[in-house]
Amino acid sequence: xxxxxxxxxxxxxxxxxxxxxxxxxxxxxxxxxxxxxxxxxxxxxxxxxxxxxxxxxxxxxxxxxxxxxxxxxxxxxxxxxxxxxxxxxxxxxxxxxxxxxxxxxxxxxxxxxxxxxxxxxxxxxxxxxxxxxxxxxxxxxxxxxxxxxxxxxxxxxxxxxxxxxxxxxxxxxxxxxxxxxxxxxxxxxxxxxxxxxxxxxxxxxxxxxxxxxxxxxxxxxxxxxxxxxxxxxxxxxxxxxxxxxxxxxxxxxxxxxxxxxxxxxxxxxxxxxxxxxxxxxxxxxxxxxxxxxxxxxxxxxxxxxxxxxxxxxxxxxxxxxxxxxxxxxxxxxxxxxxxxxxxxxxxxxxxxxxxxxxxxxxxxxxxxxxxxxxxxxxxxxxxxxxxxxxxxxxxxxxxxxxxxxxxxxxxxxxxxxxxxxxxxxxxxxxxxxxxxxxxxxxxxxxxxxxxxxxxxxxxxxxxxxxxxxxxxxxxxxxxxxxxxxxxxxxxxxxxxxxxxxxxxxxxxxxxxxxxxxxxxxxxxxxxxxxxxxxxxxxxxxxxxxxxxxxxxxxxxxxxxxxxxxxxxxxxxxxxxxxxxxxxxxxxxxxxxxxxxxxxxxxxxxxxxxxxxxxxxxxxxxxxxxxxxxxxxxxxxxxxxxxxxxxxxxxxxxxxxxxxxxxxxxxxxxxxxxxxxxxxxxxxxxxxxxxxx
Length: 692
Prior knowledge:
The chain is of the alpha+beta class. The protein contains 17 helices and 29 strands. Mean pLDDT is 90; it is low at 339-343.
């Protein structure tokens, strides 16, 4: 019989840990929370100190019953949920349910699921940390007070099924504000002048800088003409050559937000997918008996700390020196955390540098391998020497008109041999050749090309840039980014267009109401302050009831005012101008959870509904009668089909274009990847030059 019972959240984690602990330990999974606030009611007694009403989650009764049975047989129970607020709350609820003394040394935490880390953590158990529990409880109650009070108001005054959350509402407001910036943006004209220079057999490029050593902007065509008129005979004298050595430091190892951002940039993963796969890598992968069996491959993935354990640094240093040479190992690293980081955990890193990605490629799934390689490479690069670049800046002059040319070449790759951080579509660092040039030399401008430009509006948020902005502003915490992005999409407040967030009309209506009656809920500064208050509860500096009470005093007044003053908003159905093919009544545009759709005006007698189809201006290549329209799959992936479906079953993942293949006359499509779009034939090998 097992002497000790260990309870974790997931079966995968249980399996990994049980292998390390041996026969005296039985490890069981609670499958996450077993006890929580009820879904059917608020579950918070506002009149009695915001006392939460906890119940066994529906469907978890049998799990809890089994855990109680095992706990009675065990000599001691250890609660080993994740090392964060949520994990501490799970442990606290289990302690109560299983009658475990929460003041006893029953809580075990570890940052990585490896043999050494697990054995060490069981040597140092501790009591339940009530400050962590209170911080989680405060967040949960705050979210209940907001969601379960505002949502019924929205149902009553606007539309059933609407809801409002705390951090989610701020995220939607940010997306709406960005959309307004784009709509109100007025492009401004500006110009640039590029030149191609020739020195004997060598050619290079430069751009206009200014006049008489002073930088000058070119705002209109007249400015350009004035500059070109000053240029005489297209011979430029090299006025100055500046050479210097520049060091570039590696990026810090991943924290939760930077992992989500980089996985979005480089792997096209949604935040939710990134965290799901990271959880699998953390909990353990079966590497086979020869490689140690089930092994946790990365450290805990919900963290805002870039700290690295001294032992991990030493292992990385030895691996780098053995693999790449001593010159590639960093001599010193001053890695400071961002302000406000809790530093309870390490950065996200591989648990062992000996588990290099290539050696695990056959074992891991494709997505597991790609994410693990990203984490591994980033960590290894963070412990490597800076890259060294030789840079050269050349100032060229003709009658006071100054052009500048810059070049660079990599002198020493350093960390760049392993990994280079993504950059949200900006130009990548690359070598740019400049010939050997000296002051006083004369070169010919073989071509001078003026170009007109217009300023561009700020881009819509991607998952990566939204997470990055939320992190910079202090909105949410590592565990909340992915659920927040997932929630605002599921509620239909935003949609995705070309991997960028677009607010829906429904989202705009809800935010407008919140802005008027509950401005603090969508105020960034207020939400950031609230996150700080939750941190102070975790640190034992503040009591959770005081934070909730301070919030609720004003919030309750606003609720009463909104209930009294808010007028019912009727979202009128807009005539679509077409008749229902089933009953002949007019079709109307209706507002649904995911935006507008077509429905029969004769509802409920006729329940005909249709999606609003976007035509792409191409005749169906199969039936030659219908129009090709844009559709969405169940997983929200865009595909293309004939609008006469089901009469015509034409379908294509790639976008058809309104031209036939010049070789075989089949239809052409645009094939897209992250970097380029290419036109290809669907039947033969014909393809056209790529468009970047």
